[in-house]
Write a structure and sequence with these properties.
Layout (H helix, E strand, L loop, with lengths): L1 H14 L4 H15 L2 E4 L3 E7 L2 E6 L3 E4 L4 E7 L3 E4 L3 E4 L5 E12 L2 H6 L4 H18 L18 H16 L4 E11 L1
Antiparallel strand pairs: 1-4, 2-3, 2-5, 6-8, 7-8, 8-9
């Protein structure tokens, strides 16, 4: 980016020596080139698309230049927290249970997050709810008489691992990495 910027800064000096008709052609080209500059901040990325074709992702922070016709989509690489709403589900024994979860996730593959799902944020929300429902419905709330069974209340660590594994599988399509998933509410 810096050599391009230096070149564009030297253009006005060169315009002094050009024919006046050439100046009218040079100025629009210089202005068009300025559109190609972009900055990537910490934990951010830019997904580059040129005429509908994915050209790559810039993850490194700094000052860059690309073809001025390239669309530069901004995508955060920061970790995100979501707390699912408390939902009512029947456990494996048919008892009604209120359950909620907290999920920590981040975008791992930017092109997948941008192109493979409509809105990756709402996709994470919906998949979190369906995964919480699925995990809660296959386990009883309490152990009861059978101590070998994994229960929602007694084995929260194992249930959290199952939830995280299921979410990781569901969110793989969107290029999302699940850092942590745990039950936040259980009644």
């Amino acid at each position: 980016a810096w050599p391009v910027l230096l070149g564009l800064l030297l253009v006005p000096i060169g315009l002094v020596f050009l024919h006046p008709a050439t100046i009218f052609l040079t100025v629009p080209v210089v202005l068009l080139c300025l559109v190609g500059f972009f900055i990537v901040g910490p934990n951010m990325s830019r997904v580059l698309v040129l005429f509908g074709t994915y050209k790559g992702t810039v993850r490194k922070q700094g000052f860059f230049w690309t073809n001025p016709f390239t669309t530069k989509h901004r995508l955060s690489l920061k970790a995100h927290n979501i707390a699912s709403e408390t939902i009512k589900v029947n456990d494996s024994r048919g008892n009604p249970v209120e359950i909620g979860a907290v999920v920590v996730w981040q975008v791992r593959f930017t092109a997948q997050a941008l192109f493979d799902v409509e809105d990756y944020g709402s996709y994470v929300d919906i998949q979190t709810e369906t995964s919480v429902r699925a995990v809660a419905s296959i386990h009883p709330y309490d152990e009861g008489d059978d101590e070998d069974v994994i229960s929602l209340r007694g084995d929260s660590g194992e249930v959290a691992e199952e939830l995280q594994a299921l979410l990781a599988e569901q969110l793989e399509r969107a290029g999302i990495h699940v850092l942590e998933a745990r039950i936040s509410h259980l009644a």
